[in-house]
Amino acid sequence: MTADPADLLTLAEKTAREAGDLVRDRREAVERMAVAGTKSTPTDVVTESDTAAEALIRSRLFAARPDDGFVGEEDGVVLGSTGVDWVVDPIDGTVNYLYGIPQYAVSIAAQVDGVVRAGVVHNPASGETWTAVLGGGALLDGRPVRVSACTSLSLALVGTGFGYDAARRSRQAAVLLEIVPIVRDIRRAGAAALDLCAVASGRLDAYYERGLNPWDLAAGGLIAAEAGAVVGGLHGAPAGNDLAMAATPGVAAELTALLERLGADHD
Ligand code: IPD
Ligand code: CA
Ligand code: CA
Ligand code: CA
Questions:
Q1: Taking CA atoms, which of 89, 111, 123, 159 is between 20 and 30 Å from 240?
Q2: Does residue 94 have its Cβ closer than 6 Å to ligand 1?
Q3: pLDDT in tens, 98-131
Q4: Are residue 91 and residue 220 in the same domain, yes or no?
């Protein structure tokens, strides 16, 4: 079976659009969306749309490629045998979705032998779709996107996010307290995959967050990097659970130094 990233992207994009239609239609059908349950903490909510979308994505990907692996936020891991693993966030930005804020996305990435080679982030509420194949640049609705030309943290619009754990949030707030006075402004838009795409499109100059999971980061991280962002963690680590940062090259070193000084990758 082919592992051509362009073919994987075609399947991912078609599937993300179908899942996006499903979740958007379900959201538009009700005035108030119900919480179906909570996960790690009472603030970590899940709706029936999260699980329905993941089930749809899983069934479409396995119908096309039955022997691949799968990592999804809601239903866990399926081991595959082809070297291709799908990393899926069925709704990134569930709290926005719950409240009817049109800032949520379906995120699907294809990893080949552990390396993310193709990714799509689709916002069904705005209709915007970011895509990337490793080495091929990043696109928004088929047109190339590029990071901003910002060269100073003092002029940077910086996105961030908070996890669902209260103790970690306190620490994240303390770090933020130091950052707010020295940047242009801060945004907490509520969907990590879209934050990474915002960096790719120059709508943010930088973004950082501690505590992300692979499904938050896989597709958006590739898209940001392919648009020219510096994507990584602190102290030379790759972007991951300890810290994920994506920044236009002109502010990456300054932001990294600041986050390292503040110990942003520690609770
Ligand atoms: C969350 C969102 C949020 C980020 C959290 C994520 P979910 O994902 O991306 O912006 O701050 O860290 O867990 O739960 O809505 O898929
Ligand atoms: Ca997520
Ligand atoms: Ca999610
Ligand atoms: Ca979630």
A1: 123
A2: yes
A3: 999 999 999 999 999 999 999 999 999 999 999 9
A4: no
Percentage of the chain modeled with pLDDT above 70: 100
> Could you tell me if 203 and 111 lie in one domain?
no
Longest dimension (CA), the chain: 53
Q: Which atom of ligand 1 is nearest to the CA of 94?
A: 15
Q: Distance of CA 205 to CAs 83, 178, 241, Å? A: 34, 18, 21
Examine the domain organization and report whether 99 and 201 are in the same domain: no
Residue type at 243?
L
* Residues spanned by the domain of 102: 5-144
Q: Give the closest residue to 93 by CA, choosing from 145, 20, 154.
A: 20
Is the Cβ atom of 196 under 6 angstroms away from ligand 1?
A: no
Reported ipTM exceeds the 0.90 cut = yes
Q: What mean pLDDT is predicted for residues 154-162?
A: 98
Please indicate, yes or no, whether residues 112 and 176 belong to a single structural domain of this protein.
Answer: no
Does 162 contact ligand 1 (Cβ within 6 A)? Answer: yes
- Does one domain contain both 86 and 206? no
CATH number, domain containing residue 32: 3.30.540.10
Amino acid letter, residue 8: L
Would you state the pLDDT for residue 153?
A: 98
Alpha helices in the chain (DSSP H): 5-28, 48-64, 94-99, 166-179, 192-200, 214-226, 249-262
Closest CA to 217 of 188, 238, 186: 238
| Rounded distance from Cα 102 to ligand 2 centre (Å) | 15
- 257: alpha, beta or left? (left if phi > 0; alpha if psi -120 to 50): alpha
Q: What angle do CA 88, 12, 196 make, to 5 degrees?
A: 60
Nearest alpha carbon to residue 57 among 19, 28, 10, 27: 19
- Cα–Cα dist 195/109, whole Å: 16
- pTM of this prediction? 0.98
